[in-house]
Amino acid sequence: QAQLVESGGGLVQAGGSLRLSCAASGIIFSPNVMGWYRQAPGKQRELVASITSGGNTNYADSVKGRFTISRDNAKNTVYLQMNSLKPEDTAVYYCRLWRVPIGAYDYWGQGTQVTVSS
Description:
- This protein is mostly beta strands.
- Helix content is 0%, strand content 55%.
- The chain has no helices and eleven strands.
- The strands form two sheets. Strands 2, 4, 5, 6, 9, 10 and 11 form a seven-stranded mixed beta sheet that branches. A four-stranded antiparallel beta sheet has the order 1-3-8-7, with no helix packed on it.
- The protein is globular, with a radius of gyration of 14 Å.
């Protein structure tokens, strides 16, 4: 099994920045994909960004140009740098670790709250 621990959430004004971190521990298979999802109240959980262990990235259209995902494979840690934050970015952000094709090796963090005030 793997465990994921997120950190870095908080309250920020619109236009500000936050950096989320997610450290994975336990049994880490490679190659893998790590990503960030978010869920706002009353909405479905959505993919924000993902990155493969080879460094290929994917972003939701709503965050392109504002958010940057990166990872340190030696530390099994993924980061999400969020700039130019908007009130609509307010959500609980979840870290995910999985392999392709998606199967039993699929783990989620506990979530971290990001609140952007207007």
